[in-house]
Amino acid sequence: MDRLKQLKSHLEEYKNENEASFRKIEATMKNIPDEIELIRKKINTLLDSVKSKITMEGNVILKEESVVRQEENQHCESISSTVSHSKLTTLHKTEEQLVYYESSLREKFCEVRHVDAKLCLDDRLLSLVKSNDTTIAKIDIVGKKHTLIPSFLPLTVQETVHRTPVRLDASEVKRKTVVRHKTPRKYFNPIPLKECKPGITEQFILDYPDGKSPSYSGITCLPDDRLVVIDYGNNTCRLYTSSHQHVADYTLTSKSLCECVVEGSRIAMTLRELKTIQLLNVDISIQPVGIIKTKLSCHGIAALSREQLVVSGDMNVYAYSVDGVIIFKYQHLTLDGAYGVAVDREDNLYVVGQKSHNIHQVSPDGTSLQVFSNGIPKRPLAIGFCSSGDEFLLTADSERKLVHIFKLKCDSKYRYGNTLMH
After folding, report:
1. Same domain assignment for residues 258 and 361
2. Whole domain around residue 56: which residue ranges?
3. Contact (Cβ atoms closer than 8 angstroms) between residue 109 and residue 136
4. Cα(213)–Cα(188) distance, rounded to whole angstroms?
5. What count of Cα atoms within 13 Å lies in the side-chain half-sphere of residue 341?
6. 72-81, 126-135, 413-422: the lowest-pLDDT one
7. Residue 348 and residue 331 share a domain
8. What's 36's DSSP letter?
9. Are 220 and 267 in contact, with CB atoms under 8 Å apart?
10. I need a surface site. Which of 16, 40, 132, 282 has the fewest CB within 10 A?
11. Is 24 helix (H, G, I), strand (E, B) or coil?
12. Same domain assignment for residues 180 and 197
């Protein structure tokens, strides 16, 4: 009996010990999730600290790259300013030569604008009639003859000529004081461009260093004669020197058909599908500087001024402000597929009819002047005037690899009245 009691007591003790062990195990199992959560929090804290360190190091690297870029830009600006100074020097010399040439012309011509002047030669009173157009009175003292011819320079009268009815010789003829136009022109052509016809003078293919087949659409000429060309097929805007050497590329976000110079080295480019005009600065590279949203689809673009752009759609041509507001619509244009547009030195507008295979010349007030079709390639796309003012570049859908150069010229002799001007 005693032995049984001892065994029972041992069993009770063993049972109690096992129950205590089970309780400890259960308590430990309950604490495991809390410990796991604590470990997870520690890991997240470590990850956050690593991320912050990586971000700080990345910011330091970006700042260093920004400093390097600024130094490179400053270096490029210094090079550009040096080149610009040399070009300005050349322009000043050219301007001095033009002024000297004009002064020699003024010794032979006396110009009158919107005034009545009376010139007496050999006791004969010759009257010049008021005219809305600028007129030059060509005086031949010896032959006692006079003729009136249209003016070829925009001159402004500062004082009226006063004459007395007495016999004069060449040394006694008093000249008026005149002021030359503010901007010296590179051309000397008395024929208005609205009386000229385009004739093709040259064709060329631009170099493509990446080996891709070119597909020209928009083309424009910068004031320094560099070319900016849109490669429609490869969705790229390309910059070339005046000698047609490739300089830089800019990848477009959408298809573009036309571009124009707004001012200096700033150009505007149409993005047809986005109904947007992209503004770009062209230096040694091409950089975007802003956008203008349009209400309608835009194909061609030209700049009448810093504040006004001309944009063509499928069938119509509109004048837009730089805020994207339509100012007016050009009327009486019989176009089938209005694409490229450009403005010449006299502010006449040229609109390409892509499906009608022609170019419309329109006056600044919207009057249709001429329609050019002879020599124009089939399905013309874009047009852009050269810095000379009487030549333009043209691309065509039928010849996507060629750039055509046309010159506006008059085939007939320059006759005014009965006088032949040499």
Report:
1. yes
2. 38-104
3. yes
4. 40
5. 32
6. 413-422
7. yes
8. H
9. yes
10. 132
11. helix
12. no
